[in-house]
Specification:
Elements: E1 4-10, E2 19-25, E3 28-34, H1 52-56, E4 66-68, E5 74-76, H2 79-97, E6 102-106, H3 108-111, H4 114-127, E7 132-134, H5 142-151, E8 159-161, E9 168-172, H6 176-179, H7 189-199, E10 201-205, H8 211-215, E11 218-220, H9 227-240, H10 244-250, E12 251-252, H11 254-261, H12 266-273, H13 277-290, E13 294-297, H14 299-302, H15 307-320, E14 330-332, H16 340-343, E15 353-354, E16 363-364, H17 374-379, E17 385-389, H18 393-396, H19 400-409, E18 412-417, E19 429-432, E20 454-457, H20 471-482, H21 497-501, H22 512-517, E21 520-523, H23 531-536, E22 542-543, H24 547-555, E23 564-566, E24 593-595, H25 597-602, E25 610-614, E26 619-626, E27 634-636, E28 668-669, E29 671-673
Parallel strand pairs: 6-7, 6-17, 9-10, 9-13, 10-11, 12-22, 17-18, 18-19, 23-27, 24-26
Antiparallel strand pairs: 1-2, 2-3, 4-5, 4-19, 8-14, 15-16, 20-21, 23-28, 24-27, 25-26, 25-29
Helix pairs in contact: 2-20, 4-20, 5-15, 9-12, 9-13, 9-15
Bound molecules: ligand MGD (2 copies), iron/sulfur cluster and molybdenum atom.
One ligand MGD binds at residues 107-110, 113, 135, 138-139, 299, 389-392, 395-396, 416-419, 421, 433, 435-436, 471, 567, 574-577, 639-640, 646-647, 650, 665.
Length: 677
């Protein structure tokens, strides 16, 4: 009998990174279960985590590298020849068009592959190219932007709730029961939500009665895209009763803020949001009575046209009530590996850096161009070659038709993935990468999303299949061939995953060797609360009224009347992952188009009907689901699907926020009809 071993790792599907135990026998992973001893997830897993082993052996997994020949046929190629081919094209592109003509896009898969991501970014920066993109700019660019303006540092975008001590919590446009959190991780979300609702009050603000709203103390369903109005009214009332002299010791811009909020009365908020004035007053009373409040937002906010001001007002209310970086309010995770409490760069002012040439109004931030610019950068001839690390651009980027067309115009499109997807099918070169169970990993950057200052090393569970290579190797080899050298002279053949991961532990209080020797989560007693107020704020004070946000609040247009698109996540999929692979139940794989019964009846539609959804960009068709819990106007469609691709409706231009480059995926005007227009 071959020996059976149990490997303690963490799930690589979402940043909750639940602890997993994987049984291995004869070199084969057999089964997966939640790790009951994991201090954060305590044995919890969701449906996605539980597919880890099945997904690993999915027939759609990539087992060899392929190249598309000029006649369209696909050629299987060993890595050495792929490298030669890719390197010569990169060399030629850079020589003819300059370094910015070669770009990198990091997706969700790439962001959970710490070694691959580190080397990809290091290589691109080393070539002098500025053409770096990631899904962060189709997710929540307003969060780092507001963090930089208000607290001086974009790295402070992940704001966590002090779950054990919060007595009043508000979730705005986030559905953690399904998503397990947006920029904060909620392993075992129902347990945490129950704690919040039992210890005090949990309010959920969402135009749909979501799985999270059901377990909350209170649910408010405002009109889509109006959150900034009720938040501004609450902030105005709270300022009116606050000790402004005390506030001025903690924050700058108090008088400017009072002036900016003057037009936002409770009555105006009630009218615009459709909420009862009484409901808003109850929420105001709850905040006043409790004193502190923790507020967290999700994609319902970050994908809306008013994202920046809404996020800002969420900070404002927490600062005015002295809830930010305080017990019972919100806190900032410095990250076990990052240790931002000791290593935060000097405060900045939100200016950003020059953006992509084809979209000069947009700015580069955090070393990245906004993803909405990708199509125009290709069409204008600025971007000729693109490396895609663990992303599915066809389903994640706005305006699918233009995205597909633009990707087809690239001279070189190298997709580094673990399964075939809609984007690998368009690639000139597909690199079969080592899968999560075949590599060593650390939660880098995602450690700031955790509900504790914690880390965990995940070692390889099974040997890497012969046709695959570690994603970091692609960039190490490109560096060795074209420059710059990324491994400090070490032969890529001799370097290990750990060699590539080691620099990520430079600030860690536990060395990589110790993490490797002691699998499972490590919790630090680094300060969770107080470090931002004490060490990070510019001049020791929050900036309450950044001029660009005051100006933006003045100019936000009223949300459209009629039907609007809103985002939604599906429990068994992660974006497009586990959809096409055959791992998910195929009947669930097509997202329903969810509407309120009255909106459907007005259009003569009933449940199960085929409907056609149109926007100013495009059209999609799918099956209607009626949900009495969806507010009037809501057309809720999940993304990540090739067949019913919601991004056929979204735009790289219309409504795009010039401050951050975020597309509108919540609050986009749409119409629903019964026949193809
Ligand atoms: N199962 C599963 N989990 C996931 C993912 C997945 O695809 N599947 N994706 C992962 C990723 S990449 C991310 S970024 C996170 C996102 O995590 P969340 O931000 O929690 O995302 P959603 O669950 O889509 O919740 C967004 C909610 O906002 C509501 N909403 C829409 N418009 C508005 C509005 O104008 N105002 C208000 N107040 N609410 C509004 C929607 O109805 C929806 O319930 O989830 C992650 N987790
Ligand atoms: N309309 C609309 N559009 C949206 C959203 C929305 O709510 N509405 N949500 C947006 C958000 S929040 C996000 S984050 C993006 C998601 O955008 P993407 O990150 O592009 O989406 P995924 O489908 O998660 O694609 C991840 C890819 O990584 C691959 N992968 C997984 N593991 C590994 C690995 O270990 N190594 C490598 N090399 N690859 C791996 C997967 O096979 C998959 O192809 O979509 C955005 N687009
Ligand atoms: S919530 Fe699910 S997908 Fe996210 S880490 Fe846990 S098991 Fe994995
Ligand atoms: Mo995301």
């Amino acid at each position: 009998m071959p020996e059976r071993t149990v490997h303690q790792v963490y799930c690589r599907f979402c940043p909750a990174h639940c602890g997993l135990l994987i049984d291995v026998e004869g070199g084969e992973a057999l089964s997966v279960r939640g790790d009951p001893d994991h201090p954060l997830s305590e044995g919890y897993t969701c449906a996605k985590g539980r597919t880890t082993v099945k997904a690993h052996y999915d027939p759609a997994r990539l087992n060899h590298h392929t190249r598309r020949l000029p006649d369209g046929t696909i050629d299987e190629v060993p890595w050495g020849r792929m490298l030669e081919d890719i390197a010569s094209r990169v060399r030629e592109t850079t020589r003819t068009h300059g370094p910015d003509a070669v770009g990198l896009f990091i997706g969700t898969g790439g962001s959970h592959d710490a070694a691959g991501r580190r080397m990809a970014v290091k290589w691109l920066r080393g070539t002098g190219s500025r053409s770096q993109y990631s899904v962060a700019t189709v997710d929540a660019p307003s969060k780092p932007f507001v963090a930089e303006l208000v607290a001086g540092n974009p790295g402070l975008f992940s704001v966590a709730i002090d779950v054990e001590r919060s007595r009043l919590t508000i979730l705005v446009g986030s559905n953690p029961v399904v998503s397990h959190g947006h920029t904060s991780a909620w392993p075992n979300p129902r347990k945490q939500l129950r704690t919040l609702a039992t210890n005090g009050q949990l309010w959920v603000v969402d135009p749909r009665r979501t799985e999270t709203a059901v377990v909350a103390s209170r649910h408010l369903a405002p009109r889509v895209g109006t959150d900034h109005l009720w938040l501004a009214a609450l902030a105005r009332e709270l300022l009116a009763s606050a000790d402004l002299d005390e506030l001025k010791l903690r924050a700058t811009g108090v008088d400017e803020l009072v002036g900016a909020l003057d037009p936002f009365s409770m009555e105006r908020a009630a009218k615009a949001t459709g909420l009862a004035l009484g409901e808003l007053q109850e929420l105001l009373t709850a905040i006043r009575t409790n004193g502190r409040v923790a507020i967290q937002s999700g994609t319902g906010v970050s994908m809306s046209a008013a994202a920046t001001v809404t996020e800002w007002l969420i900070w404002v209310i927490q600062i005015v009530t002295d809830s930010m970086d305080r017990e019972g309010g919100s806190w900032f995770n410095p990250g076990f590996l990052r240790r931002s409490d000791a290593n935060l760069p000097a405060p900045r002012d939100g200016q950003g850096d020059p953006g992509p040439a084809s979209r000069p109004a947009l700015r580069a931030r955090l070393g990245e161009f906004p993803a909405v610019a990708l199509v125009d950068e290709i069409r204008s001839g600025n971007l000729k070659a693109l490396f895609v690390l663990g992303a599915n651009l066809v389903t994640s980027l706005p305006d699918t038709a233009s995205t597909i067309e633009a990707l087809g115009e690239l001279d070189l499109l190298v997709a580094l993935d673990v399964v075939e997807n809609a984007t690998t099918r368009l690639a000139t070169h597909v690199v079969a990468c080592g899968a999560p169970l075949e590599r060593a990993d650390l939660p880098f950057v995602t450690d700031t999303f955790f509900c504790a200052v914690a880390t965990q090393y995940a070692g390889p569970v099974v040997a890497r299949a012969p046709g695959r290579i570690p994603s970091w190797r692609v960039f190490a080899d490109l560096g060795a061939t074209l420059g710059p050298d990324l491994l400090g002279g070490v032969d890529p053949d001799l370097a290990t995953d750990e060699d590539v991961l080691r620099p990520l532990t430079a600030h860690s209080e536990v060395s990589l060797d110790e993490l490797v020797q002691h699998p499972g989560a490590h919790i630090s007693d680094a300060p969770r609360i107080g470090w931002v107020r004490k060490t990070a704020l510019p001049g020791g004070r929050w900036r309450l009224a950044p001029a660009v946000l005051v100006e933006r609040l003045r100019s936000v247009e009223d949300p459209p009347n009629g039907l609007v698109l809103v985002p939604r996540r599906q429990l068994r999929q992660l974006n497009s992952q586990l959809v096409e692979s055959g791992t998910a139940d195929r009947r669930r794989a097509v997202p329903a188009i969810i509407m309120n019964p009255v909106d459907a009846a007005v259009r003569g539609r009933t449940a199960g009907d085929r409907v056609y959804v149109t926007s100013s960009t495009g059209m999609l068709s799918g099956l209607l689901e009626i949900d009495p819990g969806a507010a009037r106007g809501v057309v809720s469609i999940a993304h990540g699907h090739g067949s019913v691709n919601v991004n056929r409706l979204t735009s790289t231009v219309t409504g795009v926020d010039e401050l951050t480059g975020m597309m509108v995926a919540s609050g986009l005007p749409v119409e629903v009809g019964s026949a193809e227009p």
